[in-house]
Amino acid sequence: MADRIKLGMVGGGNDAFIGGVHRIASRIDDRFELVAGALSSTPEKSQASGAALGLARVYDDYKQMAQREARRKDGIDAVSIVTPNHVHYAAAREFLKRGIHVICDKPLTSTLADAKKLVKAAEDSEALFILTHNYTGYPMVRQAREMIANGDIGNIRVVQVEYPQDWLTVEQDFKQAEWRTDPARSGAGGSTGDIGTHAFNLACFVTGLEVESLAADLEAFVPGRQVDDNGHVMLRFDGGAKGMLWCSQVAPGNENALRIRVYGDKGGLEWAQEDPNYLWHTPFGEPKRLITRNGGGAGDAAARVSRIPPGHPEGYLEGFANIYTEAATAIAAVKAGEPVPSEVIYPTIHDGLKGVQFVSACVKSSARNAAWVKLDH
Amino acid sequence: MADRIKLGMVGGGNDAFIGGVHRIASRIDDRFELVAGALSSTPEKSQASGAALGLARVYDDYKQMAQREARRKDGIDAVSIVTPNHVHYAAAREFLKRGIHVICDKPLTSTLADAKKLVKAAEDSEALFILTHNYTGYPMVRQAREMIANGDIGNIRVVQVEYPQDWLTVEQDFKQAEWRTDPARSGAGGSTGDIGTHAFNLACFVTGLEVESLAADLEAFVPGRQVDDNGHVMLRFDGGAKGMLWCSQVAPGNENALRIRVYGDKGGLEWAQEDPNYLWHTPFGEPKRLITRNGGGAGDAAARVSRIPPGHPEGYLEGFANIYTEAATAIAAVKAGEPVPSEVIYPTIHDGLKGVQFVSACVKSSARNAAWVKLDH
Amino acid sequence: MADRIKLGMVGGGNDAFIGGVHRIASRIDDRFELVAGALSSTPEKSQASGAALGLARVYDDYKQMAQREARRKDGIDAVSIVTPNHVHYAAAREFLKRGIHVICDKPLTSTLADAKKLVKAAEDSEALFILTHNYTGYPMVRQAREMIANGDIGNIRVVQVEYPQDWLTVEQDFKQAEWRTDPARSGAGGSTGDIGTHAFNLACFVTGLEVESLAADLEAFVPGRQVDDNGHVMLRFDGGAKGMLWCSQVAPGNENALRIRVYGDKGGLEWAQEDPNYLWHTPFGEPKRLITRNGGGAGDAAARVSRIPPGHPEGYLEGFANIYTEAATAIAAVKAGEPVPSEVIYPTIHDGLKGVQFVSACVKSSARNAAWVKLDH
Amino acid sequence: MADRIKLGMVGGGNDAFIGGVHRIASRIDDRFELVAGALSSTPEKSQASGAALGLARVYDDYKQMAQREARRKDGIDAVSIVTPNHVHYAAAREFLKRGIHVICDKPLTSTLADAKKLVKAAEDSEALFILTHNYTGYPMVRQAREMIANGDIGNIRVVQVEYPQDWLTVEQDFKQAEWRTDPARSGAGGSTGDIGTHAFNLACFVTGLEVESLAADLEAFVPGRQVDDNGHVMLRFDGGAKGMLWCSQVAPGNENALRIRVYGDKGGLEWAQEDPNYLWHTPFGEPKRLITRNGGGAGDAAARVSRIPPGHPEGYLEGFANIYTEAATAIAAVKAGEPVPSEVIYPTIHDGLKGVQFVSACVKSSARNAAWVKLDH
Question: Distance between CA C125 and CA C99 in Å, rounded?
Answer without folding.
Answer: 6
